[in-house]
């Protein structure tokens, strides 16, 4: 299912990497909301391929076209459909994927799931390219959230072992979140960024790839939103975040680190600052009992290294049921983490918006 | 919402920590499935409090009573309602929670969410006690999965910094999963377990608490089940796992470690073993593109330390809007991780069953 | 599935006719709402059996017991579970239903659906008795709606060919809706009611049964609520109304009669009355494009005659696959329509509430 | 919401009457299913406007274009997006709809719902034109159902007071259902059809419109599918059927007529015919307890007369809050029932398919 939804807000993503178009239908957007298309394009451009040495050489302008749900720059309340043309496709690169599984990819599991009828060109519907419609949906959600006082931003927390600085979980501001989004390489500390870029370039030269972690934050989200058990903010965010290909872990607040702390360390003392109830630390990541506390909502999302590498790899031909060697061709990101930053923002924005409309 | 569901299988949990009963309605169980009530009671007993030095002193036998949906030991196809009596409640312990927030608890967020109308006694519906109905649902699901060749087991992966051995992600067997479930303290390596127990006892003496990580595994789950994007196994499992109170992170396969690996390391080479397609390593945790690969499904779930500690803590009175100090009374687990093991198994079992019925 | 829900409001019904208890879990009720239990009991009593010559001789007090989700007379925001004991069960009446299908009942279809594992005693989960938990949920919903200015009422529109007066679709008031609810036999015109009662008694003497139609109305529901296509008020109401056993048709406003009208007759002219936009007639039943217009919401629900009749009937033994004759034993309503009135109100109330919370 | 779904099968419709495109995303179609595009076009042509004297003069070829989810004539398992271009739009016809409500239309309710931001041109997303994407989805569903032995067909049961013959509810065959679909005017009795056409033409000349009823039937649907209470076939079908604009009533089997029958008449005696369990009559419409019996599934759907008529009508200017007179311009069907026939088939097909995939 490429449908995600909560209550009154739903999205339905369609398309394949090498089909003619990819897109998304968003249902439940409130009517009369102004959407700044230029800003939306800028947001989509942050994810678009071909911008730098760290990403695939596939060139796609990725200009979203709005087919419905908008009139005179405003939402009409009807479902909004947005589409992107696929242009730069090299489908001949994928001819042997109908029988030989790329390690780390979904070729074999998709073959089983769809009895071999799935479109394998460019990984078909499994392609990271399908995050482009998600980014459209999230870009629109971000604008609606901003009108409601909520700002969402993310940065590259780490690539391999190189870490960026971290968001200040207590005092991060909307302005800081906006600043990092303007950078070509979304890090807080540009020196760390330089190191990451070098590592990615080195990996690329070695016909290898790297993974990393994206940290995302929402500020201004009202306190008292969410529910215990299964409709909590953590449940809802993780249910959409794992929809981004290559995500293998999600944590909130102190996350896995909290498992190593004592209660006396992990518990965030409450205090009153400028007449407002806050916590002195933010190990809870802005969520307690599934409900927002008013503190910044913070999470980290782990991405595995791009599975497409051009080194020879041991694998199988699942049609012939025999082992073989494979060299993956095609154009790929040596590290998807830089382009994953707006994808994470988009998923978080869409999910959080579902609580407010 | 305390409703969770996928397609034909849904659960609805109700009750408060100090109400008369807690329970669950499960809708969509296939008809004619034999449920072994004794085995179900044993599974519930693994979660029940009061069994050891590492858990709360509250004594609850937690015997589930089946009110509907079963006849002559078999499911009827109608909704199954199971209930547990609350007996050993000390509600006077919670009198000041209507105004003073326990750090790390949902008292303040619940107050905002429910305008102060929520039942605060024993944390009400936010209590870890509400995992008892989840465990009933999961215990039933485990039995149905076993009839379908799927076995689920979990162990205490770590408490604070002390680690247990890990599941062999490639060759773990149903038998091994069953063995660890029989232990009083669910670790693979009993020496590690002893150390963990000591650490927990020490923390308890210091009026403190500890967190930890639970590792869970499913073997025998058929390959080719799941979907890309939002109905993938990772999405679905995380959406229910974050429903267990105190969970702050979920990762699959190599998880966050994958973010530090190169593609050449993280990619699991395919091979053919005994005529069956496998992978030589299992960094993908049995899931690729949201779809099962036939390898063991492996995940780790991070638990924060129990927020209830009896040390003085800085907090606020949210009615009076003033800072104050709090010493939490009541009976609490100094570390919930040991009792969380069957909760994780239960959540995973119920979610995986939803793909097979 | 005995789960129904929309957005933030869900119910899950459980139980079998001759099980120990039946009940409902309602999730998503707003917190802090006062529930008048006496009034709820009165509402449940309107559906309870054994009150008159027109209903089954089974005696059930049907007193709901609230297990969770309420404290000090108010909702807590946590799931509300309410239960009713089954007392007066004569299970031996149903012994041959495991193989012989009662015409008009679900015995045979349930046998196929559940492979014979379903509980046949008193029709099990298919029993009209399962409307008791629905009535609890609807009774609570009615109280919450009343606090929001919405009143719901229904009457017996017809039994066989005898018709009651109709609601004035334009000017019906909350007061009128409340008055008819107080009557033992819910008709507007008591003479018509007398005739209906006589017809039902006659049918009962002839070992036969009768069907009828219930008309239901909601006044005070705000204008501008609902959606086109699949989340319209008509879609939502019908999806729950067909959950009441024996319902075979649902129509809104002029309904099937509209199909015989010209546009110039059926179109309701708009006008302004007391400064408020209204329509002069109400053939649209208060709903246009799935959205409320502010006029009374009006619908009619067709009930088939009770299938349980004590005349000999031709049927089959589906185990032996042979034709046979059957005389249905047990205690049954010769006409369920009088007791269906609060069931319809309940379903409508719960569904409409889902738009307002 | 223009999203409809059950379990693994979902659709999301988008577009406005005078936008550039309208379309649908279908998620959950099984992979590897051959779709005959020519047949799909023929099915869409049955709904397309401009074919006869009884329909609107708007000319739209309505050729669906498949953007995703198909490869080499087969479904891939990924979401299928299909689109239709809007060509023949006369938007100037609708300029005053932003303030003056057409009686019987959703102009005023939509204005309230969307605060005036909705697209009013050609009724926007409320237009009957939005059934074109539904027909695409249903046309695909019909083909998949046919491969599973299920055939769906409908006819014009009545226009105003003129009735067609009825389907033989017991012995209707797939062949008969296919035959009526080939006709330009979908009636069983062509003489009745002629009368209907004359009535429609007369109404058109009088600047008026007519309503009618569509009867739909599914044969070959397996017995034992469905559920009691809220996931029954009647609930599910009605929840989608009321999504077709102008539907005001839905009934199954004997429907409202059953309310006038005695149990001894309405109960369908079971019998064995050619070794197969059947009923001698089919007042239950193939559904008992929400579950299919194996008999033809039969329903009737009431359509109100087209609200757009060119006579002067009394209405209001809702911006100025004053009464006024309106003459509706634009091109409209004097009776939508003929074109509604494939819409009903489509809705039924899609909903029934959701039980089989």
From TrEMBL, chains A, B, C, D:
Protein family: Belongs to the chorismate synthase family.
Oligomeric form and interacting partners: Homotetramer.
EC number per UniProt: 4.2.3.5
EC top class, as a word: lyase
Residues involved in NADP(+) binding: 47
Pfam families per the UniProt record, alphabetical: Chorismate_synt (PF01264)
Organism of this sequence: Hydrogenoanaerobacterium saccharovorans
An example Gene Ontology CC term for this record: cytosol
Record GO biological process: amino acid biosynthetic process; aromatic amino acid family biosynthetic process; chorismate biosynthetic process
Pathway assigned to this chain's UniProt record: Metabolic intermediate biosynthesis; chorismate biosynthesis; chorismate from D-erythrose 4-phosphate and phosphoenolpyruvate: step 7/7
Record's keyword terms, sorted: Amino-acid biosynthesis, Aromatic amino acid biosynthesis, FAD, Flavoprotein, FMN, Lyase, NADP
Catalysed conversion reaction: 5-O-(1-carboxyvinyl)-3-phosphoshikimate = chorismate + phosphate
Protein name: Chorismate synthase
Top-level taxon of the source organism: Bacteria
